[in-house]
Amino acid sequence: MPLTRDYKETVVARVVRDPDFAKALLDEAATLFLTGEPDAARLILRDLVNATVGFEGLAEITHKPSKSLHRMLSPRGNPSMDNLAAIFSAIRHWLKVSFDVRVVEAA
């Protein structure tokens, strides 16, 4: 059986090819955090960092050690709100997007 393409390579290729996909990943990560699913959000952010700025670039932007950033976005990571804000901000600037937060009332 032939080997399939690695998931991470697929995400990187898609982000490079399709900026709207990268923006959708960032939107999904933010939505997951805000709706109480931080584990899934961290993993999406990790993939997005790998596909865009990279952990070394993120370390330079956020003034945090690369190794610490890796741990923060790992499945067992526990980043502070300040660190999350810095990560979201760095990716947002890298993608040249802004957030538009809307409140939807529950039915």
Question: What's the structural blueprint in terms of helices and strands?
Answer:
Layout lengths: L6 H11 L1 H16 L3 H14 L2 H9 L3 H7 L8 H15 L12
Describe the model.
By secondary structure, the protein is an all-alpha fold. It contains 6 helices and no strands. It has helices spanning 7-17, 19-34, 38-51, 54-62, 66-72, 81-95. α1 crosses α2. The protein is globular and about 40 Å long. The protein starts with 6 loop residues before the first helix and ends in a 12-residue tail after the last helix. The mean pLDDT is 88.
Compact overview of the structure:
The chain has helices spanning 7-17, 19-34, 38-51, 54-62, 66-72, 81-95. The chain is mainly α.
Radius of gyration: 14 Å
| H-E order | HHHHHH
The gross shape turns out to be globular
Largest sheet: none
Provide key terms for this protein.
mainly alpha; globular
